[in-house]
Specification:
Rossmann fold; 6-stranded mixed beta sheet; 62% helix
Length: 468
Amino acid sequence: MTLLMQGKSNKAICRALGLAEPTVKRHVSAILKALNVGNRTEAALAARRIGSASTDDAPLELPEAPSIAVLPFANLSGDPGQDYFADGMAVEISIALGRIPRLFVIASSSALAYRSRPLDVRKIGVELGVRYVLDGSVRRNIKNRRRIRITGRLSDASVGRQLWADRFEGDLEDIFALQDRVAATISATIVPALRSAETEQARRKPTDNATAYDLYLRALPPHRDSFRQNQESLRLIYKAIELDPSFGAAYGLAAYCYHMQMVFAWQPLPDDRIREAIRLAHLAAEWGENDPEALWMAGKTLAALAGDTDHGLALMNRSTELNPNSARAWWASGLTHAHLGHAEIALNHFSRARRLNPRDAAEHAYWNGVALAHLLSGSYAAAKRAIDRALLDWPDSPPSLRAKAAICGLIGYAEEARNCVRRILVLNPATTLATVAALNRPQIRCNPSGYKNLFEGLRRAGLPEGSA
């Protein structure tokens, strides 16, 4: 923090500490935020984390399989309101590639970090640990909005050389065929021995209704950011389901939106909405039996809200079988195992998710999961290190604050524990031990000893008891 107080630039701090600039910028932002509200203790903690951040910047080893990152596609439609559609194309092409055997595909949320950065494929390849980089653009015809053009450019990041470029045109109704053509062409370029049968096996068409699909893409980006955005996503998804009652991924996303309401405690989740979430999750599993996105969202919801961990894990396992490159599916499975007290399995799955998504914008979700795995298995020192990282990324994360309060309560960090409880009650004054117990009732049944310790930690931290 001394360097910051001396007015040193981020680049100067990077040189002094031997760290990459993105890492330093994250930590400096946290320090300044804490100082702005007069919290010098939190600022000091953030400063200390800079010194321990060098491991995050170690070069990632290239996987044995051909590896690729699909960068955000440029929106050339002349309408900023179509950005969601261009982002959706990049995400869907990533998913299509992820389902092809013998490919390693970086999660789209890591690739999205490069949206506004200059294209330097060599640097991107090093930062994400991939051999190939795909960038491109999407244009929806101004006069005929159902006409689409996708362009793609594939580069070998190891040498900074373009390998292939092409364009694909069609109607909105043909969008899945266009995505699959892009994915098949890329896979054939970077894996010459790949059999056409393998690429054909990866094809999927989640819906026949182009309008329903457009609504689904609009619902995707913000559904975890706030209760208001969560509600807007649900409104869009229900419209998509009305248009196509067999749209498995839409059911899965709707179920997961309800699950997010519970996780972030935006408001109490009454029994009727829990029942609705479970109903939607079952429909997602039924209609999306071959859709990895539908399956992991359905599985996570059933495990968390219904306590049906066997069925939920089976669905998540099926998701990772269909798409071994789904970072979100590996993370969801890891979190479910963490709740069960299966720390070794959970940490292994989190590690898989982290490698597939090394620049995740929601880094707090990864570290919160790691912390929970350690906490519920009794490794409190490791849990403390991980939860501090989670709160560095999102200082007001309700699940991370609850976890840190419990951890600090258990290991005797009384002041930190009380500070966490104060922040929890500012964010949600109705939070009590009783409401947290209601929030985790299905998980408590599956791992009573782990949760007994968690609640003891919250009690020592000073969280009010409340009424059952």
